[in-house]
Specification:
This protein is 28% helix and 30% strand. By secondary structure, it is an alpha/beta fold. The protein has 3 domains: 7-113 and 204-234, D-Maltodextrin-Binding Protein, domain 2 (3-Layer(aba) Sandwich); 115-202, D-Maltodextrin-Binding Protein, domain 2 (3-Layer(aba) Sandwich), CATH 3.40.190; 237-304, Alpha-Beta Plaits, CATH 3.30.70.120. The structure holds phosphoribosyl ATP (PRT) and zinc ion. Zinc ion is lined by residues 65-67.
Amino acid sequence: MSTCSACSEIKGSDKNRLRIAIQKSGRLTEETEKLFRNSGIKFAESHDHLLAHAENLPIDILRVRDDDIPGLVMDHVVDWGVIGQNVLEETSMQREVDGQDTGFSEVMKLNYGDCRLSVAIPSEIEWHGLKDLEGKKIATTYPFLLKRVMKQHGINYKSVLLTGSVEVAPRAGLADAICDLVCTGATLQSNGLKEVETIYTSKAVLIQRDQPLFPEKQAIADLLVQRFKGIMAAAESKYIMMNAPKDKLEQITAILPGAENPSIIQLEGDPTRVALHAVSREKVFWETLEQLKQLGATSILVVPIEKMLD
Ligand code: PRT
Ligand code: ZN
């Protein structure tokens, strides 16, 4: 990987401020900025500047191309980076070959950026397994991840490196197959390709450089990790409220998904009914609400939770 232009600007900045590299503009940007903002980090909206200083916490945000993020962490230019596991793994293998440092530690997995790296071939071609790729040309942006899997299966192939528009390679006669990121599969389909083998699954992760942080930075890092966890737990949880017949309480609590110790409050003027409040740690489906209704529950409300601190 080439030396990043960000390095010279950030070197020498405050040793007490936690430095975090995030994608400047791309598929991880919106969710990452949302997570930071929901965690109480206030920073400038403008994407023009490489470096944004948080206004209310000792944090500096470095906005760069995602491909530069693993290197910035591994070269100790930043303390933290938010990156897709696919780019992290590919860059690690590339750096190892180049004799560069590859050390980092994973702070936590994040709940966005999910995708998979898959092999796809023209829809009309039959597929029997990876051995069909013997002697074939495969276009990809991830030559190291592809090579690792092909080596495991003992398959010889020719790698065609493309950094964009990989999905047009077979139609353009550049390759027989592709190995590219897939989310919904719509891009493959609209290019007459079918996904035949997933070789890697990925999500966004928060990583840290492999050196202890200064105590001031560690304190802010600990605070942020706690807040990030709270936001992620809240995103998966719902607050459920309903009025319910007292004699069906056992059945009702049994079908509430992932709910712990509901609060039961006696309703005024009706000794047979109670109000039930519970936090569900899982998704609440319509089917569950319909079952609750059948058991006599009324005024059923499912509301999102913004923050959660256990
Ligand atoms: O400019 P920069 O280098 O920072 O960005 P980039 O263009 O290299 O990356 P970007 O923004 O496209 O993706 C950043 C990261 O998001 C990836 O490295 C993955 O970790 C993650 N991610 C999640 C995805 C997708 N989903 C995804 N769908 N990255 C790419 N795609 C592509 C996919 O390859 C396909 O071409 O999006 C297209 C649409 O996907 P379908 O299957 O939904 O049609
Ligand atoms: Zn990139």
